[in-house]
Amino acid sequence: MIVNLLDDIPHGATGQMTPFDHQAIYDKAADGYGRSHDRWLRHAGGEAQCAFEGAVTALLQPGMRVIDVACGTGTVARRLRKGAGGAFNLTLLDASAAMLDHCSDITATRVVGCMKNLPFPDNTFDLLTCAWGIETVDDPAKALAEFMRVSRPGGHICIVHCADRPAHSLLGRALRHRITTSGRGRFLNHDLLSRQAAMIGAKRIQTLHCTGPAAAMLLHV
Ligand SMILES: C[S@@+](CC[C@H](N)C(=O)[O-])C[C@H]1O[C@@H](n2cnc3c(N)ncnc32)[C@H](O)[C@@H]1O
Q1: Is the CB of 99 under 6 A from ligand 1?
Q2: Does domain 22-220 have CATH number 3.40.50.1820?
Q3: 16 falls in which pLDDT band (50, 70, 90)?
Q4: Is the CB of 133 under 6 A from ligand 1?
Q5: How far apart are CA 57 and CA 80, in angstroms?
């Protein structure tokens, strides 16, 4: 079952979808998303994705409450499900119902919602993951604050995102240009994002080692 929490949300209000968000683009892109994302990982984001997945796998424990925010077509969730014997409670949230439709094979609660206004009480999750999602909203700081709010003290938040650093290859540069001009996302300043995480109360912030136009970090809540 998919719970849709976006129907009544007007555009333009703080913490809700705005015309600067990218949900409509992903609704249209859903069917071909896997192919273009694989290309991005092969030529630019793969190192950061590995760092992210390594951290997440190490943290995952049976019985945890886990949420994958901006889950897309479920790339991260399928890998998560192979960890900790699959014995944890998983929620998948995305603003695009079309993207979430591709996750119907994954055992999880699927929620259509906005990361700037997460429909969960404070301190709900032990582990929150967000891969290539925070750069798709107009206000990443607001999303970060929501990630912190719904994570329990002692929990973790793991993020991988497009970063404003040079690409290693011509193809990497071309993909970066395509992502920006197609409106699929922005290339965020990782140091600024880390400072924002510190300001909203992350106890410890670890930048995971990776190079190229992508960055990953682990926040200790
Ligand atoms: C680049 S895709 C990443 C998908 C997936 N995490 C992955 O690793 O392949 C970005 C996702 O963010 C979702 N998204 C965009 N704006 C959002 C918002 N305000 N709240 C939640 N998800 C959003 C899009 O629908 C899309 O599925």
Answers
A1: yes
A2: no
A3: low
A4: yes
A5: 7
